[in-house]
Every structure is written in structure tokens, then in C-alpha cells.
Amino acid sequence: MHQEFSEIGHCGGKFSINVKTDEAGNRSVSIGMRISNANPASLIGVAVNSDGEPVRITRLGGWVANSEAEKPEPEPVFIQALLASDRTGMFGHECPNCEKYWRTNSFSAIWHTVCPYCGVRAAPHYFLTQGHRAFLKNLTQRFHEALGYPDDGEHIIDMDEVVSAVQDGKEPPAFYKADESQQTNFKCKKCGTRNDVLGRYGFCSSCGYRNNLDQIEIQLDDLKKRIGTGNINPTEAIKLIVSVLDSGGADYVKLLVRLVPMTESRRKTAERIKFHNLDYFDSELQSCFDIQVKKNISDDDQTLLKRMFLRRHVYEHCGGVVDDEYIKRSGDVDVRNGQEIRENMDTALKFSSLVTKLARNLDDGFHEIIPINHEVIQMLKPRRN
Ligand SMILES: [Zn+2]
Ligand SMILES: [Zn+2]
């Protein structure tokens, strides 16, 4: 069960700083890590300058828990440091642009990271947290100290000790900061990366695919189950189906307004888009963003969709009693002015499926404008399944 805002401790393990002198008298220092406990853990390489400031994320070889990390690539100028994940195998991230926090299990040296909230894309080391940065400074300081000792040897930073001290309620050292679970922990449908974000919606921080459609489908599937089992009145379900689309849809629009350069008047029009009236939001999305929400939906289904959105207005604002306005706009000849209407299960289920189609078209149109990184999806394909 996913718990919001709970502290997620470090994965533990022992960082080692090894100083060696070869026969020719050359001294070398390397940083490694051993993990002996059973929880998930992963490791990334970070090149730091002599002050411990991160310069870039570096590629490590394949890494298996419970064994010594593979020797990192040589970094001629910078110190090759390491960072380990939290005890769920994820890393906290902080966006330098919007300053928001999230966690992900992907911290690649190869592709740029995407902020799930503001969508900014940059080299991954820009997203290291204050906790990571404090740890890297400490590690670098210990590195210099180890090099300053006259004798060779291994110097340990024991994270197992730190983790157990924190569990015992003791004050952790200044370089330690635990991660924190957020509200929506989702696996990206395109690349398989796991992301844990504040709120419900976010970009996948690896490939940049937005999770709105996935979240809309999860909620509509749940509603369909409730409709099917009689757990919810079909009329109530119609209202909720519209509000699911409105919440996910408004988030897409909010991002487009922020990320797409547009004229002031178009921006104002776009900011007013609500997903309550099909003809209205269809025409506004076309004029502002060239998004075709009714694409590949038959005329009959479009008629039903239009009618159900208008009926939602009747349920929400007229106590379910139809008026002339409804009859005129919907062309519904089966009801008369003043009649109280109700929905049946089949219509509610059909409406839910058609709203999913609208959401898919919205998702397509959104990502035609805000591109996904398809190379990342190819690279992470095995993880998706
Ligand atoms: Zn951001
Ligand atoms: Zn992804």
C-alpha cells in the first residue's frame, strides 16, 4: 500500500575510499560501495570537482546488489563519486527550475531528465537533491583526508550505521537526508520508469510521457466496475466521468498554455477551457492547439457524447429536470420540457468508454506538441514489461 509523505530511508551499505600505492610509488584513490542487506538498492556514479560539487552523472557498469560495485570509468579530471538510492531503489530529485521534489528509479548518465511538474529538461546532475549534494561534499572531504594520510588503506562511511541510528530516533549526521514518498507512484506506460510525484499528474522523468491518460483510464475503469456492480448510481457516474476528464484535461491545457508560445488573447481563451461541453471544448482545442478530440469517433457516438455532456449539466445544475435549452442544444426528442431524466447502466458504461477515446485523442494531440523521447523508450523497452 502506497503511503503518502512517509520518510524513505537510505538503502544502507558501506561506502569505501581505498588508497593504494603501486610499486612505482604512485598513489591512487577509488570510491566503492558494498551493500549487504536485502532491500532494493541501486547506485549511480557522479563526477564531482575537488569541492564535491557534482559535474555530471557517469556511467557505471552493470551492478548487482550484494556485490562490490564495478569499477567506475576513469575520470581524469574529476573525482568519481557514488550515490546510492533509498531503500526502495529510487532516488529523490529536486528541480532547479520549479524547486519541486519527486522520486524516480531512473538516474541515467545517457539522457536528459524531465521535471514531472514544469517539464524542464536538463542533464541529470542538475536534479540532485540538497541531501545528495551534502553527501557528495562529505564524501569528497573524506576522499581528500584519505589521500592526506601517509598510509594506504580503506576508509569507510558506514550508511548501515547511519540508517540504524535514524531508526532508533537519533539525530542523523548533517550529510544525511532521507527521501520522502509522494502522492502518485506510477510506472510510465511508455518506458517503464517508476516515478513518485506530488499530486496526480506528471511527466515521466525519463521519456517525458505525461501520465494523465493513464490516470484518467485508471479512474474510469474503477467507475466502470462500480457501475457494473451497482455500487454507483449511473446518473452520479455520468457526473464523475465528466469530472475525471475535466481534471486530466485541464492539466494538459494548463501545461500547453505554459509551454507553448501563444498570443495573449489565445492564451486567455485557452485558460478558460473546461471539459463540460463537447462542442465548446472541441472547437477551442482546435483553434488554440490544433488538437482534434473527436478524431476517429463515429457520428452516432459523437451525438451520444454531446448529449451526455449536456445531460451532465442538467444533473449538476437543474436537479435532473430538462428545460428548453437542453432540448434545443441536444436535439434529444425522447424527452419533454420539465421531465426528470435518469441514466441506465449501459449508457453510463458506453459514455465512459467514449470519454476514454476523447482522452486518448487529447493525449495524442498533447504529445504532438510536447514531444516524447522515443530513444529512451527504445533503450528502456525491456523494463516496460
Ligand atoms: Zn520543475
Ligand atoms: Zn517514460
Description:
The chain is an alpha+beta fold and about 375 residues long. The protein folds into 2 domains: about 5-185, no CATH class; about 210-370, no CATH class. Helices cover about 40% and strands about 15% of the residues. The chain is built from 11 helices and 14 strands. The protein has helices spanning about 130-150, 160-165, 210-230, 235-260, 265-270, 280-290, 300-315, 325-330, 345-370, 375-380, 380-385; strands at about 5-10, 15-20, 25-35, 45-50, 55-60, 80-85, 90-95, 100-105, 115, 120, 155-160, 180, 185, 195. The strands form 5 sheets. It has a 4-stranded antiparallel β-sheet with strand order 7-8-14-13, with no helix packed on it. It starts with 6 loop residues before the first strand and ends with a helix. The structure holds zinc ion (2 copies).
What's the SSE blueprint?
Elements: E1 7-8, E2 14-21, E3 27-34, E4 43-48, E5 54-58, E6 79-84, E7 91-94, E8 101-104, E9 113-114, E10 121-122, H1 130-148, E11 153-158, H2 159-167, E12 179-180, E13 184-187, E14 194-197, H3 212-228, H4 234-259, H5 264-271, H6 278-289, H7 299-317, H8 324-330, H9 345-369, H10 374-379, H11 381-384
Antiparallel strand pairs: 1-12, 2-3, 2-11, 4-5, 4-6, 7-8, 8-14, 9-10, 13-14
The structure holds zinc ion (2 copies).
One zinc ion binds at residues 188, 190-191, 193, 204, 206-207, 209.
